[in-house]
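Listing 4. Sequential folding, example run.
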Amino acid sequence: MSTIKQYTKKNGSKLWMFQTYLGINQATGKEIRTTRRGFGTKKEAQLELNRLLVNLEKNGIEKNNNEIFKEIFELWFESYSTTVKEVTLLKNEIKFKKWILPVYGEMSIKEVTVKHAQKIVNKWAKETDQYRVLHSSAGRIFNYAMNLGTIDRNPLERVIMPKREKSNKEAIKVYSKVELKRLFDYLNSKEGSYRSDYDKTLMRFMIYSGIRISEALALNWNDIDFQNNIVNIDKTLSQTKHGYIISDPKTNSSSAKLTLDDTTIKTLKKWQINQRKYMLTIGITDPKLIFCGIYNQVVTHHSIYQRLQTITEKCGIPFLGVHITRHTHASLLLESGASMKEVQERLRHASIKMTMDTYSHLSQESKEKTIEKLVKHLNF
């Protein structure tokens, strides 16, 4: 039940490795397998494998259980996958594959020291502001190894967390009234078609509702209460390994009923009529999604991103990403006199701290404009 094979490293050099079965973990009932890499010749790999098997026969599995980090991770991930939504699972898998497994993956879980972990987190701190999250995620695997009885303590708990120098990050950018007028003048000038009507409706809805693009793309027509000018937000478009699905929002605070203005409601009513008219010409009736493609297919975030790039280029305003509509909505609220608490509730942030951290500079600008208005009004 052992295999020896050659593999190629990223730099093109060839080394040897072996994989072997060690037995059953009594605590979990799972098979225990180990992988050893880095042997210069097949003979070296064979000798190390023989030594391991002799020790196993002599001392038993508990004393020879020398799994690498990746093996413990895979066992943990199998259980973890049953406790979270698929979209969360996918994000964590990407995080481990991109950052954590490349540095910890092939290390023996027993041989990782505080020094190893310190060097890794120091390096992460220079490369990403997510270094604390990465360190915490890696620590979960060591805690799991403790639960399995593989190690006695978690070396990552003794690491000194480095402080990352604050970057002079630019303040959140938003579209001005002039830029918004230019945007809508361009959209309204387009000849009527499924795509042009779609773009006009989506941009109006996004800027005047402030909802996330993933939430807008998941909306059904029955989520709009035309009589009371309300949109019900209780789902989101999520990416999975097998494509896109409509799922529940990640947090409870994301679900809400938001009030819409009269003009946005009228725009949606007109779009509902036109959407059915366009689709009927190709034999499609009764579309459910508000912002689907003409063939009733789900439209993805990437598609909207590319579409907005084209629109902004043609109307002569800067492309600032899809999230710009949400930022602009917050800016307009603050400029109109809304409090930070009202903005938090409108954007459905879990805490007001999140809102203030993101938009405090916009609030200050609004206050300064208020003083200017007072001075101009008094005129002495």
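-- end of first protein; second protein begins --
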Amino acid sequence: MKKKIGAITIGQSPRTDVVPEIKAVVGNNIEILEAGALDGLTKDEIDRFIIEKDDYILVSKLRDGSSVKFAERNILERLQKCIYELEDNGAEIIVFICTGCFPDVFKSRKLLIYPQKILHSVVPKISNNKIGIFTPVKDQIKQCYEKWSESGKHIEVVSASPYGDIDKIREAAFSMKEKDVDIIVMDCIGYNMKMKVMVREITGKPVILPRTLVGRIVAEMFD
């Protein structure tokens, strides 16, 4: 019998742009169940979310392929409902397919896995001094500096959305090349393997892709 893991997107499920690449890593003996914090909402309803000055900003994708920006606090209750749904459907662990920093407010009978905690535990340990970060939008740059600077490393951040023109990611990669970092983190679950390879080829630096890193950890847990 296949093991079941739950995958929560902060956008809308299914994440056909993300889950297949995770599935390729975890293998065929694992079934991935999906739930989305914005499931059941229209674009107009999401656009009515209010973002205030000090909000923690998140970016994700809707089922129609468009991207949206909103405050983390807008979806906390909806994320809890996703956890309950996945537990009821038999998920043995639950993975947030988002690299955002979430507060410790969720209740679950199962193990919750946060990519952000994995990234911030691993990357500083394998970097000499200077870490490069890709983040989707300019509104997230300040919060990226604040969180990643807790590592004690020198941080460089560029913005380029995984949900827009890939040429913007290419431009950001050339900008990052000039900063001569030790290692690069593409700090959003929306960045894919094609983008990773392009950034690595342009910069000549090692690149960490959250979706496949988390997939490898899940595979290790159930292999």
